[in-house]
Each structure stands twice: as structure tokens, then as C-alpha cells.
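Appendix B. Chain record.
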Amino acid sequence: MRKPGQVFLVGAGPGDLELLTLKALRMLKRAQAVVYDRLVSPEILALAPPLARRVPVGKAPKAHPVPQERINDILVELALDGLTVVRLKGGDPLVFGRGSEEVAALNAAGIPVEIAPGITAAQGVAAATGVPLTHRGLANGLRLVTGHCRDDQPLDLDWSGLADPDTTLVVYMGAANIAEIATRLIGQGMPESLPVLAVASGTTPRERRLVSRLDRIADEASAAQFFGPVLFVIGRVVSLYQSCPAEVLAMLATRPLREAVYA
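C-alpha cells predicted for this chain:
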């Protein structure tokens, strides 16, 4: 019986080639098969050995041509063929990447798995835009949530818990539901004028940005016709964006926390 191969679960980061970790690069160079998501950039995929088998399993909103259960099976089948397999995911595989489900399937099949974490999109966007995720006097905590549910089911989030103006809220994959998200947060007491930063295709040459308010972000993001994944940063920290509109800054002007912006 052939000895099973090895599976590397690799985070490709938010898109910028230079944000790939050395560990991820080492694993990718060893690949005999690469099972990759839609959001992995061509530049990163090109780092795999030329003869490595490439298996696309990407998902898009409301389009899931390869179900997660089938992805799990593909990884097991390739490894049982004795191959060194890289499961390449955008961002970090354990942050909204369903990497833990794949690890569970591989463990059940007796296949060894090693994980290379990746820089998640929130970190990449923070570095690219200069908007911190926390800042003294503006945000003392951080929440990461996904803006869509499995199989496109209705959102079921802890809206009252998320509506905390002292916490930065980052919404992944939320473009389709940002109107509902904003309405729910305002309904739980978040200020309508709270600043929001939307970033499409963050850290890549295709990156686009928009600064708005919570009560306007849905309409303005729709009008912007973003292409690619959109990340939303909701909170006072957005006031630190270098091109933040004057009206958004004015929203914070009456708050005692205003002085802390430049502390």
C-alpha cells in the first residue's frame, strides 16, 4: 500500500506577493499538487513548481461549483496518491477559510497536515491604508465577522454585541449584505455618522478605497461598482485615514476622544 503524502494548509495572505511568509513559500515550492481558491493571486500561484498539478476549487458569491465536502475529498484523494499537496487559501486559512474543516477530514483519513498561517485581509488593509485596527482613545478592541453565511443563508450575527462604538468591526465578504449589516447596527444604537472604510482587492494593484458613513455605505459602495472582494472597516479608527472627508472628521469633533487621535 502506498504511503500517504503530506498536506500543507497554506495562507497566501491578502494578495500582495511580498506579504507571503517564508514558511508558506517553502511549502509551496515543495508542492506536487496545488488546490487553490479563487482569491489566490496569479503571482503567488506562479511560485509553485511548473510541473505541479493545479486544481482550482474557488467559490464566488452565490456560486459554489466545488462544494466544501468535495474539496475535502480532493485533498484526501491526492494525498492518498502519495503526493505532497498544498491547499492554498487567500488570507489566513483559519480565519473564515474553513481550514479547520479540511484539517478534520485529513486527520480522519490519517493524513499528516501542517499549517502555514497567512496575513489576514484585515491586517493587510490596515497596513495598506494606514488605518489601525485599534488605537488608544478610539478603539480598545477588534471584532472580525463574515458578511455572509454558509449556503447563502440569512445573516445570524450578534447584532447587539457588534454594535459597540469602542470596538472596531471588520466585515469580510460583506458587499452583498452591507445594507442589512448597516441597518442592523444602526438599529442597535451605532451612530449613523460612524465612519466606514471599504477596500476592494486590498493590497493588490487593483485596490480601490471608499470612505463613507454607516448610513450611506451601502449606497456609495454599490455606486462604486467594486470588483473583487470587499472588506469593510467600521469604527472611529477610520478617522485616521489620511484622506478622510471633512464631514467624517467633524462627526468626532464634539467627542472628548478627538484629542486622542493625534496622541
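Further analysis of this model is presented in Appendix C.
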